[in-house]
């Protein structure tokens, strides 16, 4: 099979993204800003949209690297599952499992976090936040996690197609305008409620709900935390940015890694840990990882120390 | 979709979002109403190093915070806020006020709008915390 092709669904969805963002703005304006419909801030929204634009441009400039790697794998694999509809569905589900792990690595390995951090750098949670995407994903080498799919016989074009569908699904869940959905939907699918938790900087919400489309992965691998109505989600990073400059948003963590790795007086292991240990790791304990932040909150007075997201590992 | 059409949709979309949010008043910068609010904003960023005292700057867009471990600055970012310790920061007087440069690419600098009379005073007070 050589002439497999699928539409570039993400590009085709751009007009839908724009229309939905404008509709959400109008909805929030009508419902009142202090309600539960969400918040917008002009510079924050523009930064998010410019990050999304840059993500498309970086894909145009660097996409050939991942594509070349995938086609190389396709040449060596003896397996070819074809293009039947059920193969596409199976590919979509397995790719969502792939997304879960890449996303989890993105929060637990600083090298990958350096690329993903920009998606969490807004203190707002609205549809523009969904488009606040990385410019540097290629440099994380997470394309490797897609290798098993291609070696199993899913064509690279199909793998990228279902990846695009996954990204489109995740657009609409970046909103406060939708509360909770019917129980069966919340049980199986990633929803605005589940993903709000993922964007939270509250101790109990850190490193939770990595799912793309199916929340069942988090339930299966022990990373699911339900949104708690008693604790409103506080969006953003543990230490929030002091800039709206998209270049700084895109590259600040890479620069921070470089500065840490090249500090004088460190051992080789410490330099390596600054690149690959969980975000917040430091050789002298001067910073906190998410595990340490959770442990500190567990040690807080009773009442704040228990419940989902703060259980002992 | 042709690239020119995609680019047009993106540019028009960006402009529409900017215009609409600005007209709705969502580009107005937040200001801290008092020291207590500034301290809460600090504690939100550095919960392991809580604020003990805050000195609000004129206009309420920033405050110097004295915490358990040292001194820092908390300032508004659009409708929200952020904060950084002042350790390693550099001060520079400008026509608009006082610019503080942090050794941090994620929060490179903040300019505090101050009158000339206030500028000298705050420069001196901040300089004292850095030495």
Index terms:
heterodimer, A: 313 residues, mainly alpha, 53% helix, 0% strand, globular, B: 131 residues, alpha+beta, PH-domain like, 2 domains, 3-stranded antiparallel β-sheet, 7 strands, 36% helix, elongated
Written description of the protein model:
The complex is a heterodimer of chains A (313) and B (131). By secondary structure, chain A is mainly α. Chain A is built from 13 helices and no strands. Chain A has a domain at 9-184. In chain A, helix 3 packs across helix 4, helix 3 (85-108) packs across helix 7 (156-171) and helix 11 (246-261) runs antiparallel to helix 12 (268-276). Chain B is of the alpha+beta class. Chain B folds into 2 domains: 1-28; 35-130, PH-domain like (Roll), CATH 2.30.29. Chain B is 36% helix and 30% strand. Chain B contains 3 helices and 7 strands; from the N terminus they run ααβββββββα. Chain B has a 4-stranded antiparallel beta sheet, sandwiched between helices. In chain B, strands 5-6-7 form a 3-stranded antiparallel beta sheet, covered by helices on one side. In chain B, strand 3 and strand 4 form a beta hairpin. The N and C termini of chain B lie far apart (59 Å). The A-B interface holds A 8, 11-12, 14-15, 17-18, 21-22, 25-26, 29, 33, 39-46, 49-50, 53, 56, 123-124, 128, 234, 236, 239-244, 248, 251-253, 255-256, 288, 296 and B 1, 6, 9-10, 12-14, 16-18, 20-22, 24, 26-27, 44-45, 47-48, 75, 77-82, 84, 102, 104-108, 110.
């Amino acid at each position: 099979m050589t002439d497999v092709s699928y539409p570039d669904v993400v590009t085709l969805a751009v007009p839908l993204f724009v229309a939905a963002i404008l509709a959400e703005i109008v909805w929030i304006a009508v419902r009142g800003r202090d309600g539960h419909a969400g918040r917008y801030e002009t510079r924050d929204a523009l930064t998010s949209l410019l990050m999304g634009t840059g993500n498309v441009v970086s894909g145009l400039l660097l996409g050939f690297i991942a594509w070349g790697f995938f086609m190389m794998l396709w040449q060596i694999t003896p397996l070819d599952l074809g293009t039947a509809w059920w193969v596409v569905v199976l590919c979509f589900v397995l790719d969502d499992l792939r997304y879960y792990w890449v996303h989890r690595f993105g929060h637990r390995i600083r090298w990958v976090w350096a690329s993903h951090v920009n998606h969490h750098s807004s203190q707002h949670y609205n549809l523009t936040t969904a488009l606040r995407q990385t410019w540097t994903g290629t440099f994380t080498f997470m394309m490797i996690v897609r290798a098993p799919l291609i070696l199993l016989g899913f064509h690279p074009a199909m793998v990228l197609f279902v990846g695009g569908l996954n990204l489109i699904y995740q657009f609409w869940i970046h909103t406060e305008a939708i509360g909770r959905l019917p129980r069966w939907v919340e049980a199986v699918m990633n929803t605005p409620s589940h993903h709000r938790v993922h964007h939270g900087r509250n101790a109990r919400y850190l490193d939770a709900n990595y799912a793309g489309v199916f929340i069942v992965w988090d339930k299966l691998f022990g990373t699911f935390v339900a949104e708690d109505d008693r604790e409103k989600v506080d969006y953003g990073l543990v230490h929030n940015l002091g800039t709206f400059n998209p270049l700084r948003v895109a590259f600040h963590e890479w620069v921070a890694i470089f500065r840490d790795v090249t500090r004088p007086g460190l051992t080789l292991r410490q330099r390596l840990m600054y690149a690959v240990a969980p975000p917040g790791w430091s050789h002298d304990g001067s910073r906190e990882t998410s595990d340490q932040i959770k442990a500190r909150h567990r040690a807080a007075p009773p009442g704040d120390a228990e419940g989902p997201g703060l259980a002992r590992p | 979709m042709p690239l020119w059409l995609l680019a047009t949709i993106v540019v028009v979309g960006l402009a529409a979002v900017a215009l609409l949010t600005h007209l709705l008043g969502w580009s107005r910068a937040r200001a801290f109403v008092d020291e207590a609010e500034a301290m809460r904003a600090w504690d939100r960023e550095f919960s392991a190093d809580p604020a003990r005292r805050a000195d609000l700057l004129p206009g309420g867009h920033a405050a110097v915070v004295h915490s358990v471990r040292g001194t820092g600055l908390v300032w508004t970012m659009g409708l929200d806020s952020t904060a950084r310790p002042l350790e390693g920061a550099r001060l520079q007087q400008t026509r608009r006020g006082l610019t503080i440069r942090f050794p941090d690419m994620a929060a490179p600098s903040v300019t505090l709008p101050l009158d000339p009379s206030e500028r000298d005073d705050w420069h001196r007070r901040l300089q004292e915390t850095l030495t």
